[in-house]
Amino acid sequence: MPQSMYYQGIQSQGIPSPEGVTQGMYPQGIYPQGMQSQQGAAYPPGAVPQGMPLPGLPSDVLQTQGIINQMLNQGNQVQGKPAPTTSQQPAAFQVPLYPGMPSPDVPVSPDYVIGPGDEIRVAVWGGVEGTWSTLVDRDGNINLPKLGLLGVTNLTFQQLKDMLRKEFSKYYTDFDMNISMGSLKTYKVYVVGNARMPGAYNISSLSTIINALLVSGGPSKAGSMRDIQVKRNGKLVANLDLYDFLIRGDRAKDERLMPEDVVFVPPIGPMVGVAGNVARPAIYELKGRTRLSEAIKMAGGVTASAYLQRVQVERVFQQKSKVFLDLDLQNIKGKDDILLQNGDIVKIFPITSLVSNKVTLQGNVRRPGEYEWKQGMRVSDILTSSEVLLPGTFMDYAIVERLVPPDLHQEYRTFSLDKLFSGSDLEADIALEPFDVVTVFNTKEMVQFRKVKVTGAVNKPGEFEYKENMKVSDLVKLAGGLTAFAFTPSAELTRIVPTDSGPKTEQLYVNLTDALNGDESQDFTLRENDYLLVRAVPEWQLYSKVFIYGEVKFPGEYAFKKGEKLSSLIERAGGYTTNAYLRGAMFNRVSAKYMQQNQINEMINRLERELFAMGNTDVASTLSSTEAKAIGYQTDQKRQLIEGLRRIEAKGRMVVILDEVNKMKGTPYDITLEENDTLFIPVNPLAVQVVGAVYSQSNFVYEPKKDYSFYIKRAGGFSKTADKGGVYILKVDGSAIRPSKGGLAWDADSHKWVSGYSDAVESGDTIVVPDKIVNLPWLPVVKDFTQILYQIAVGARVFFQ
């Protein structure tokens, strides 16, 4: 299949499965999981969790790993599974090493070179018996009884054995001996570069490159696994590709280290991701020129469910966009075996889940399900006799549903089960094709359901089977009887009456009380499709309730009648306590909450439109760089405010003014109650709060007849960023005012508004000092926006307190 390339305009949200069923060949060297094992030890999938990137990783490594991880996150989608969470993303293919793991014990080979620090164990039996353990000293000597000092430095283990046997033979005859190594000398090597725990390590003299990596934790996430280098006396003496060991179990190049060797882990090389239907989906490091087939082999080969005719490679094209390459893996030795590049993602799709050789039996049968389709198969091969049917089968009619190519539209073939089983009609035994669906029906499904209907104030409204001579009372009983709020004097019975000019609708009115008591004149005989509507008692509402809390004598939940007033609720709650602070009363209503939330949403939408208008290029082109920066800063502030407002939920507070119950009656504030109204009456807080652009935001003890400036001074005065002209007071009753001389003020003693100073502060008030917004007097829209900010801030208090 030729390569096809097209630009990715929009990042795909999923990977569609290609159609078709793969029954072809697997290319040589790429084996389905479970069909042929790899030579040597295979590394288990899911090595080291990817996790968060380590600080200090090179930006290009992080970027490449991030891109590949993003696509590998879709790897399970390729296999028809939900996408994993971030913590479940396929990991980079890494060494499963843990810092500090000891070097494994291995036998000492005959060519092992003896040196200071080695422990030598000698056992002799026969003509002489004895066991000795001795260390090679710094001078390279050992000391044995009778033999004295013997120089052993730079001897191989085999040479040591020969020398000791020769020396013992000088003094003894007829003996046998065994010479072994105890603890071995250690020496220092250095693990540097991109290791997890770089440093100097004392290791056994038998240690290899992999042993040194073990004690240092292996390569870090930024370290290469394909080019581990060993340097000795400043020269490169060995290279190790860890993939040889991890994937193939090959340790041929795992050379033994010498004193002062340097194990260097270079930065990670180019990376590719392999996702989907392979044995080990992961991120792999490339080494040299790597072709598609080699990357798939590194990933353990394709699984048995892999679709080989379309393998997709996603590639970053010229650092500008992403492109797809669709390749045929069955022709992998040809031009489709492309060279991979850094950042490529290889996706192996699954075969379609559609089974190509099936027919389906469903309906009123004993063993419904999917059956194998065979050449020449007919209906009689799955409906062999009447014994496969359930009781109540409709024998005159069954269907075969078929998808007809090329557009796969549906066609239906009908047949009689009676004729099929009797053999009287050969055409009833329809020849089946793949994907056919045979449906057998129940008798009740094929007979029209005769019905009557009842709705309204009954316990189980719905449709019921009509029976001859059925009465209104029978229908009411089938519906579970009447509810407590049913209006029995007049229920409406709607009936369709056939006439010469067509069907007409008529209404009959039934006294249900009489009908249920056996009055034949009201207990009408029903006809098919009659519809009975049982009305509810007008304005019936079961257990309508309101709530009153705080400083009343009997707080709690109260049922109320339609039209009841707020003063009545307070009166029923026993009236106020002596600690009640009426000015701070909070009254919340559900309908007000909905209205307020809609108003806030409208303000936010209007604010967003104005922000968009401020940011158009025509306006921006007329500004200086300083002005443009100011506009940008201001726009960011406004966007933050919008986001904050979106998180606020309206509470439905309404401003009410409470008074003694007798004085409230007949006033506009003696409002009519609604379902779920809530009234809370607090105690007097005797405090005033100052917030915003002051030096010490806090609550201060309330002092009568002091204005807002008094409390601002108590808070340390205005800060440098304060908008002194924008101060406003959020009143304890939920309203908001701007302080100014003249106008009206609330007189708590006389319980009424009086002329005077509107900057008077009451107990429970909050004084808000806003910050200044960037001042651009030459841009009118900024002034308009400031007004919007004020309206929203005030509304937020009124709506949400």
TrEMBL record:
Locate the transmembrane regions by residue number. Answer: none
UniProt biased composition (Polar residues): 1-15
Q: Which GO terms describe its molecular function?
A: polysaccharide transmembrane transporter activity
UniProt-annotated stretches for the region Disordered: 1-54
The keyword Signal belongs to this UniProt entry's keyword annotation: yes
Kindly state which keywords UniProt assigns to this record, in alphabetical order.
Answer: Signal
UniProt domain Polysaccharide export protein N-terminal: residue ranges? 107-181
Q: Which residues form the Soluble ligand binding domain?
A: 188-235, 271-318, 358-383, 451-503, 545-583
| Annotated PANTHER family | POLYSACCHARIDE EXPORT PROTEIN GFCE-RELATED (PTHR33619:SF3)
Q: Under which name does UniProt file this protein?
A: Sugar ABC transporter substrate-binding protein
